[in-house]
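Q: Convert this sequence to structure tokens.
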Amino acid sequence: MKSTKTIKSWSFYLLLTVILSATSCGKGETEDITPSNPDSSNTRKNPNVSLSKEAAPSSFSTKILLEDYTATWCGYCPRVGHAIEEAMKKNNKIIGIGVHDDKEMGFSKVESLMKKFNIGGFPTAMLNRSTVWSESYTPLQKKLSQTSSTGIAIQSSLTGDQVKGKLKIGFNSNLSKSINYAILLVEDKVVAAQKNYYNEDKDSPFYQKGEVIENFQHVNVLRKSATDIFGDIVPEEYTKKGKVCQADFEFKLDGYKSENCYIIAFVVEKDGNNVLNVQMAKVGSNKDFD
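A:
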């Protein structure tokens, strides 16, 4: 017979598990996808990256990336999406992306991303691909106050449904870590029905909006990646003070609304974790180093 102490201990851990899962939507079984390794050859070479003749600026503004793992079937997800929107309104150096796992807007590599970053339930927001965001503005302010040794510029043109562009990465100091770059295409203002568990919560902005919000507007939905989703290699010989390296990229919009499409590019440590800086530009426009 089990002792009273053992039964109480088992009961405590069962209760704790229930509490932790009460404010997130569970994720069903996912296929076992091993994240791609952007550095599998260990050569750190990339023929698509070349050295620009221009000199890098002496300083760069720091921007941060928030990735919202979300789904239209998740009734708790509007809360985190709203928190990210509010943070972006407070500071335009905060860049948010919606990474969906649903039939309406599901991203093709979402399973790989979730496995890499141990995403077990929705909603979950990752800050700079290094920590889970607490939905507080304070840690964002702390990140924004840090100086950045890298900067990003984006140039792009739009012809019909085809986007072609050039990414530039500048360095104002010698990097001691190997890095990768990622280039993503997002579409803003995507309308799709959204499950809402806050319909009866008077403190929620989604109070009395309906248990399903039919015309919910989804922000910066991740559509495509022009690179490995964990980043392509930046050769070490380019990551030196004063240098600017560059890489070409292209996307096909596939019917996405061009007026709502943006390119988001970021520099990340070679294992795919810890974003160093990020930049965002409307498709068909140029965004210089800043």
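The chain has one domain: 49-287.
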